[in-house]
Amino acid sequence: MKKIRQPENNVRIIRATNLLRSKIGTGKISPEVIQECQKVIEENDIDFSPLAREFLDSLAQTIRLTRAREISEQQAVERMAGCVMQLKANAAVFHYRLVGNLAQVMLGFLESLTHIDDNALEIVDAHHKTLNAIIAKQMKGDGGQHGQELQQELIRACERYKRNTG
Hints:
With 166 residues, the chain is mainly α. The chain has helices at residues 18-24, 31-43, 49-67, 73-91, 97-112, 118-136, 144-165, and strands at 2-5, 13-15. Helices cover 69% and strands 4% of the residues. A hairpin with a 7-residue loop joins strand 1 (2-5) and strand 2 (13-15).
């Protein structure tokens, strides 16, 4: 994609390539089509569990490989962040807002890491176990008060880690 201009308000406008245009067409998307797509997203009842389990299994494998020092720290962070990012991206579509919220916190934590030690791995592993339980119990939505408590505890654990590792 080509950058075509930089307006004064620091908004970047990126012009789509011809290949992309040929795939999506030109012109505006009608409000009716947008509403129809939104309705499909809101009313979908597809089981998120199989997809979530793929990402969670991959995260578990990465945790094991990291503990065994079979992959580099950089590979570990990239793989973990990839799994968590996929969970975050897909959770909202399947009405698992709590999974998305927790994944957002974990993604921020992973992106802040400069080194992975046993304590960091314990936080990621606890996150993994929490998401496994949420998916197993099919806890859709934001989890209410318990969901807020889980999210706050994850935030506190990440903050404690950062404080203790400086």
